[in-house]
Specification:
The structure is a homodimer of 333-residue chains. Chain A is of the alpha+beta class. Chain A contains 6 helices and 15 strands. Chain A has one domain: Cyclophilin-like (Cyclophilin, Beta Barrel), CATH 2.40.100.10. In chain A, the strands form 3 sheets. Chain A has an 8-stranded antiparallel β-barrel with strand order 2-3-12-10-11-5-4-13. The first copy, chain A, is globular and about 60 Å long. The N terminus of chain A is likely disordered. Chains A and B meet through loops of A and helix 5 of B.
Amino acid sequence: MKRLFLAFAALPLLAAAPAPEKSALAPSEIVAAAPAADWVRIAPSDLMVMELAPDLKGRGRRVVIQLMPPPFSQGWVGNIRKLVAASWYDGVSVNRVQDNYVTQWGDAEGEDPKKAKKLPEGLIQVPEPEYLTPVRYLMLPSSQGTAHLNWPNPWPVMPRDNYAAANAFWKGWPVAGMRGDGTLGETELPKDRPNLLWPVHCYGMVGVGRGLSPDTGTGVELYTVIGHAPRHLDRNIALVGRVIEGIEHLSSLPRGTEALGFYATPEERTPILSMRMGDEVKGLPSFEFLSTESGSFLRYADARANRRDAFFNVPAGGADICNVPVPVRRAKG
Amino acid sequence: MKRLFLAFAALPLLAAAPAPEKSALAPSEIVAAAPAADWVRIAPSDLMVMELAPDLKGRGRRVVIQLMPPPFSQGWVGNIRKLVAASWYDGVSVNRVQDNYVTQWGDAEGEDPKKAKKLPEGLIQVPEPEYLTPVRYLMLPSSQGTAHLNWPNPWPVMPRDNYAAANAFWKGWPVAGMRGDGTLGETELPKDRPNLLWPVHCYGMVGVGRGLSPDTGTGVELYTVIGHAPRHLDRNIALVGRVIEGIEHLSSLPRGTEALGFYATPEERTPILSMRMGDEVKGLPSFEFLSTESGSFLRYADARANRRDAFFNVPAGGADICNVPVPVRRAKG
């Protein structure tokens, strides 16, 4: 595992962070008003474009997935790039849709060695420790800001997480972490050994299906979250990206009626026509996300936790990290 | 508002609660093994049966909703009972499906006084304070147990909530609460004034659409949650029940393409053929939920927070209340 010069801050340090202004705008209004400088362009080479078979009315169904940046899950991301380069996903299908959980796609015959689709060369079996990423020093400015959105209110916005010692946004992604000794304690994080970070299972995140441990999956089975964040999967499965456009084509599919939401018959599956990297797709729009290190994002996250726009009578006073989805849009200009 | 003899316990009291055994069973296995005595039959008169128009393949789409018991939201529940008794919902439609948020149904022409469907007599405008329910003494045994599922592990299962001072399960429903002084502080709750409880916006919960304050909605617009729990709606909108069967008929509908997920054309709406109370529907199965005061539920909730079954390498160490859905099934025997 690579070690990065990142780590959690002790809370007292955070008190020095400036408080963002409290906005009566809706979160969507804050996002719409964010200056161009607060948006980060996504490289087309970090996008995958999945074309599903047309719907019953003949309309195309395109799903755009952003792959996770280093240092997270890069072994699996590398496999997936090889699978796309080999056009391996072309012709596989969506085989499982479990309500309030996941939509999963891959080779429906993958369990049968005689029928399974041949894999390209060079896929690796990533070891389980790669579910976690060691970090050493604090370089989480959005976490600093986020933790003090309500300052001097003693209730910071996202301090509470049932699944980790801390959580934050890092370069546009929701991440969680714990102390390097493997505990989830709340006391100050020790500096003598790296702490551990991992991406979290929010709505729309894309993960790697696997068998029982020590299998970690290769990337031939992928799923996306279509319900309440199944955070119990964190640290147990690799997350490799997120759907940034077209999630509705996966979340509105008919639910499978077999165990775990698998379809009962092959006819119910949705074929995947192709999966290509974004830089191979002519005419693909550019996409950008709101920098989670920007002031706009801090105001947005604060507004998600404290709705002050006209419809709301009472601000919640907080939010869980998956209720603060990072804004992503087609790039302007 | 009615005052009940319920309140939060101070944490030290909870330490005396016995620890449930730690199970290596999956949550579904614990539920399947629960004895008959741990299940609570739901009165058919507390169920609403909504029949949507058949799908494109001609298959029926039935949604069964359990209404919330006293003391929660009974003004709105009373209105809804009147609307059902008047067959008012027959012929209205699903008009809004917003991805990762809500599916909403009602009178598509309700905003236009000339075209709006005539309402039955006797609907009341419920005042805003009814979003909250005052409680006085502790009678939350599931909360006691839940708070100590991991005892003597210092991390209880669901102590952390970004949206409330405490949360618990009460007679089969997820609820949250805060101190009677209106704050969300974490210190011991005072005994000299009632504390406040409210139901929470988990997946599948059914709420009452409304306009701007002081409107609280009558029940002519209803929605259900089809995404990550939008807990910021807690205390801002009345919750009146939950979908206990057929949620997939609402969660898998095509998403609307207009603002807030409204459909662009009337043809996209899904007609509601009828809505009837359960005791008026011949042949309706009986339903039952797993008592949240039972040992089986404590083991289930513990297993949701600490998966020890074969697939999982690492137990999460906690869960948020909406990631512990209360088991509901067709009654056996």
